[in-house]
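Ticket reopened. Same input as before:
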Amino acid sequence: MAQSSLDVLLKGSSGRNTRGLLRVIILCTIAAAAVASRLFSVIRFESIIHEFDPWFNFRATKYLIENGFYSFWDWFDDRTWHPLGRVTGGTLYPGLMVTSGVIYHILRFLTIPVDIRNVCVLLAPGFSGLTALAMYFLTCEMSTSPSAGLLAAAFMGITPGYISRSVAGSYDNEAIAIFLLVFTFFLWIKAVKNGSIMWGALTALFYGYMVSAWGGYVFITNLIPLHVFVLICMGRYSTRVYISYTTWYALGTLGSMQIPFVGFLPIRNSDHMSALGIFGLLQLVAFAEFVRAYLPGKQFQKLLTAMVLLTVGIAFSGLILLSVTGVIAPWSGRFYSLWDTGYAKVHIPIIASVSEHQPTAWPAFFFDLNFLIWLFPAGVFMCFQKLKDEHVFVVIYSVLASYFAGVMVRLMLTLTPIVCVAAALALSAILDNFLVASSPTPESKAKAATEDPKSLRSTRNPVVGIYSYFSKSVVACSVTLYLLLFVAHCTWVTSNAYSSPSVVLASKLPDGSQFIIDDYREAYYWLRQNTPDNAKIMSWWDYGYQIGGMADRPTLVDNNTWNNTHIATVGKAMSSREEVSYPILRQHDVDYVLVVFGGLLGYSGDDLNKFLWMVRIAEGIWPDEVKERDFFTARGEYRVDEEATPAMKNSLMYKMSYHNYQNLFPPGQAMDRVRGTKLPKESPQLNTLEEAFTSENWIVRLYKVKDLDNLGRDHSNAVAFDKGLKRKRASKKKGPRVLRTE
Amino acid sequence: MPTKRHAASTTSATPSTPTTPTPKPLSSGPATLKTNASAAEIAQHVWQQYATTTPQRTLLLDAFMAFLVLVGGLQFLYCVLAGNYPFNAFLSGFSAAVGQFVLTASLRMQTSDSGATSKPSSKGKNARFADEQGEEQRTGYSHERAFADYIFGSLILHFFCINFIN
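Engineering reply: fixed in the latest deploy. New output:
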């Protein structure tokens, strides 16, 4: 009976409606799951902005809310990069801030009183739900199977490769950019399929939005022309391609130039030249096609390909010529490091120093994508089997993105969507073949048997399929198992690896209860409360955004690394002797110096572990004054204990990190728990700085830069005098005594 | 891929057409069809055929496209000769001309391809896909829809241009 009622529901026109409704419900559930799985950090900790860059975005959003759009556009920020300032309005991608600003104002308009912080925290999960939807649309363009789109949406919703950048609180450009990336590609596929100006224009609009949101738009700028180029080379030129591409390029390029930060780049920068070249090429091809309509001929194909090759050759050599002569800006450093993984290490230490620019380790692929990574090649293979225009796109995308993901960890993010598409294609093909429980009807079998026996075997159309219930159930069970494991893995990875705000740290006490380490906010709050409003804080650039966002104090350098020299100056101040550093600090009006020290707690992301990068970056500018070699022992070891090199022991960073640290321990037993070594007995002597604040677990240490001495002595003498009041005589007595005995 | 096809077609062409001179496949491609015709004659032939077969409405579009090429060319010439001082203005003017040109070309393709261009796009090589693509193309757009799309695209284009012109 249930069977018959199900039949009514699942067949015919009412069946179509039921299926449509089911699909909508499933998609809503997927979106809800995508949002929900990103809320671990809010539940465990609180609604807080994570990490480093999001703090700047948050600060900029607050500025936008308070001062309105136009002053945001013209914002000159004098509280960062202290002596220089930053033309913030012209040097950021405003898409993220404007998006959350619009959402904020809409909610206010609907009389829902909401804090801008909560909008920012929940923006990424909200957009991840939209990404799952966009993924569904994109995959539905690729496959006729209805399950493929749903599977892809589900994968995209919970795969850790995407969650890593979109948990609640990671208010970064990628939060909305991945949605825009996927949706732009969907619109592009739609445009190529339909050959309509409208879809092309929509692609351009979303491309413009993407440009305003993330620097990764260059990926789209190069992928779409490549797709078109491959289509032309395959002899698949059609009016649809012309219409969609030229519309996209003409509108999209103009749209991207509206963003001040991008400006004239699309016509100046080599990264964008391929798009321009393909645009010109398409005009020629279209003209050739146009002429061909009047001159039908087989040889025209030859003429066409020859023309294509010739033009590409000319354009390429022209591009090289222009690049060499300097008309077009040379490729950016990050771009070079994509092709030559050793490039950044040699030429631009500042790019290499960022951990997310490191090459990807192999386990990371499995960690981030789980079983999708081995379904991925199968899906790409299936695209080769069909190989329509949109499948060509999948193939190109997967090849390019795989390469880039291997080069840089952060580009795993661009690989994830295509892996989801390909894996969903493969898995839905498996499911479609194995899950249909019906055997072939006797008629079709008979038909196959009675087919003309004289015809070639290959032209016969035998009924092929899997009909054994055993193999069906085995495959169905194993696929279900894999899917369940995938969900378990994703949940585990999300809750353990990607949900830490890294502003607030959590650790487990021996009894299993959670222990919250909140040193950063403690220190920043101290700064906010106890220092004058324009006290300049010097720290390594990682903490610049956080100081600006949480402590609201001017900083010397921050995470926007546009001025290498300025960062190198800070690096030099940190890695030099006090006598060298003090003038630098004075020249830059520094009032406080902030260091992060994890030795007490075993927090490995501290400044001493990043210290070598400071040295390297400083060495890049002052090779004579700072030398990396001096910080290694004769045996090439990086040590902080008794055997540390003099340059190490005298560096400001070392002194600030270990100042008074030895007093915590019984004499001679001071331990550094990060580097696992014993420390020297004597605590290093600081002359030009004085300790201002040390947080509860010693993670953040603040030092106040001393003013010039009132009596005109240098600081070491002054400190010796202050300390020596009691011991001075003793030492004086000691001196002569020794003399007398000899 | 293209080279292979290249080779295959030349080998098939040489034995089957021994009378026609096929010295260079490149320039003589069209020439083989009109046996002995110079490039100028071919061009003339194309022009005549174009003038006679193109409907009035399409001619109008073509005239507009020619005008846009002229406008764009003039701006470019000015930029080369007199300098590109208000670069924003030059860029938006030039890209308005270019963008309008490609949009018009797209409109022309959509409105004037009544079987004429959709047939040769199936190259014979890709016969497997040809019929699918042909079907997709035939279920294409009505002229009204194409024109509405054109208006939509132009509106966006000119909005961007005006915003960018400073």
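Chain B touches chain A through 60 residues (CB under 8 Å). Residues 56-113+142-165 of chain B form one domain. Please confirm and we'll close it.
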